[in-house]
Amino acid sequence: MKKFVALLIVMMLCCGTVAMAAEPVGDPSGANTGTAADVIGVTAGAPSADDMATLGKTEPLAVKLADVVGHNRVALNMVWMLLCGFLVMFMQAGFALAEGGFTRAKNAGHTMAMNFMIYAIGILGYWACGFAIQMGGVGGIATLGGGAVLNNEFAITLFGKSFGLFGTKGFFLSGETYDAVVFGIFLFQMVFMDTTATIPTGSMAERWTFKSFVFYGFFITALVYPLYANWVWGGGWLAQLGKNFGLGHGHVDFAGSSVVHMTGGMAALAGAMVLGPRIGKFKADGTPNAIPGHHIPMALTGCFILAFGWFGFNAGSTLAGGDLRMAVVATNTMLASAAGAFAAMIYMWMRYGKPDISMIANGFLAGLVAVTAPCAFIGAGMAVMIGAVAGVLLCFSVFFIEQKMKIDDPVGAISVHGVNGAWGVLALGLFADGTYGEGFNGMPGTVKGLFYGDAGQFMAQIIGTVTNMIFVFGIMYVFFKVLNRFIPLRVSPEMELEGLDQSEVGVTAYPEFQLNKTHR
Questions:
Q1: Same domain, yes or no, for 239 and 382?
Q2: Does residue 56 sit within a domain?
Q3: Count of structural domains within the chain
Q4: Which secondary-structure segment (H or E) carries 328?
Q5: Among the four 71, 146, 290, 439, which has the fewest Cβ within 10 Å?
Q6: Are residues 171 and 48 located together in one domain of the fold?
Q7: Domain check: are 132 and 179 in the same one?
Q8: Using CA atoms, how far apart are residues 283 and 304, in angstroms rounded to an integer?
């Protein structure tokens, strides 16, 4: 009888092995995700008959225990990822308050409405096809023990190398992708995407028609962002630069300096250029006029909310509650934000005689944007340096874009996110110190920058940055130009002078008082 039971157990385990080799299927409940295979150093394969005779009753118990431990490990990582996703979602409130405060009172309702609705539009566009394009070929997330059903990447072959372009699994989260881990990945990736989508609402504020904004929202969330994100985070061709051409670990962006912020910044630049400046922003000779925001305390509150959510943004990108590197990531994030704010304050104080609070707030955000890519691969001193450079770079960029390029960006979104997003990914290519990143993008060894011996990594960062500039700016500029032919991007001069709250969204943010229409 004992031999029969042992043989039956062996047969069951063998059948399980065969099933694992088959095409993966979804696991909607999540109950079958996280087994002994997810415990480092433990093998859940079928023991031989000799092993069974030797081990007796202990092996089935050991396997069961390992399954429980593996499931709990994955559960811990899943909870960590979801909690961080919730933090990032709350950043939407930070963006709304920051942009609302930095713009005029007569447009506060309209600005807040765009920040609110891009969340809803973004979810639906990303659910319909954006997620599939971005993550449909990623092949699973090791720390989450699942997601293997996301296994179809459309690729082309050039020069004998495979170049992944977009995923094809996960449309509408249906079919095999009705899976607990896939749904978790969707939520986390969606809130990152939504950060990108909301950035142009700042650069295009106070003169953008709400109807054209809705079309923009679906376009960037369902197509533009997912394509570039696939190339970097979905196993696409930029991530494969290491494998295909020996360029470090491919283009590396730990939490989104290029994928999220630079993408949003390039879209913001394209939109602001097509839309044109606000009435009264520039004098006849091209000299810019200051148009102050109506509620600086609101804007600063928004910036603090953004910084709070940023811990989910950066530390959450470990995708593992057991990865202790999250402490380094979080601390680097905090240090860079402080350095960015302090450097912007000193620069403005020395040059203009006053510590401009608006520039300080944007320097604070610039430090966060810049450290987002390298935060996992550097030490504390380098985080401070990267943040400080970002704070000064922010000030230079704001004045250059306004005075030289004659582009009106009411909240400084292009400089905060676009310029400092580029600085962040390049900084990684320079200063990654080789203490972290083993196996990143499937490459052996840790991530090292130019100053730590890997010039190839810096080259991969340059390629990823230039690709973002050309692809995102180019496609968004064309999109805005074409859209403007069918649905005007800009409100009428009369509506702009009156304010967009009533005319565009039907609600006045401050109905209890009236100010001069051109300045309120």
A1: yes
A2: yes
A3: 2
A4: helix 325-352
A5: 290
A6: no
A7: yes
A8: 34
Q: Are residues 339 and 430 in the same domain?
A: yes
The 10s digit of each residue's pLDDT in 324-333 is 999 999 999 9
Long-range contacts of 122-126 (CB under 8 A, 24+ apart): 122/190, 122/193, 122/194, 122/197, 122/217, 122/221, 123/190, 123/194, 124/218, 125/217, 125/218, 125/219, 125/221, 125/222, 126/186, 126/189, 126/190, 126/193, 126/194, 126/221, 126/222, 126/226
Burial 142-180 (b: 16+ CB within 10 A, else e): ebbbbbbbbbebebeeeeeeebbbbbebbbebeebbebb
Helices and strands, number each (H, E), in the chain: 20, 2
Q: What is the mean pLDDT of the chain?
A: 92
Whether residues 50 and 194 share a domain: the answer is no
In a domain, 513, yes or no: no
Per-residue tokens: 259: 């994928």
3-state secondary structure of 322: coil
Q: Give the CATH number for residue 357.
A: 1.10.3430.10
Note down the domain range covering 425. Answer: 72-505
Beta carbons within 8 Å of 20's beta carbon, 6+ residues apart: none
Label residues 343-372 b or e (16+ Cβ within 10 Å = b). Answer: bbbbbbeeeeeeebebbbbbbbbbbbbbbb
Tokens of 500: 């967009």
CA distance 424 to 430: 10
Q: Which residues of 212-249 are buried (b: 16+ CB within 10 A; e: fewer)?
A: bbebbbbbbbbbbbbbbbbbbbbbbbbbbbbebeebbb
CA atoms lying within 13 Å on the CB side of residue 141: 26
Of 54, 71, 88, the one marking the end of a domain is 71
Indicate if 428 and 334 belong to the same structural domain.
yes
Query: Considering the domain boundaries, does residue 431 fall inside one?
Result: yes
Alpha-carbon distance of 367 to 390, in angstroms, equals 5
Contacts of 292 (CB under 8 A, 6+ apart): none
Distance, CA of 415 to CA of 265 (rounded, Å): 7
Q: CA-CA distances (angstroms) from residue 392 to 40, 335, 420?
A: 45, 15, 10
Q: By the 8 A CB rule, do 111 and 100 touch?
A: yes
Do 44 and 139 have their domain in common?
no
In a domain, 232, yes or no: yes
Same domain, 144 and 43: no
| pLDDT per position as a tens digit, 135-169 | 999 999 999 999 999 999 999 999 999 999 999 99
Which of 41-50, 276-285, 397-406 comes out lowest in average pLDDT?
41-50
Return the closest-CA partner of residue 316 out of 506, 79, 487. 79
Q: Is the dihedral of CA 339, 343, 346, 352 positive or negative?
A: negative
DSSP 289: P
- Cα dihedral value 473, 478, 481, 486, nearest 10: -130
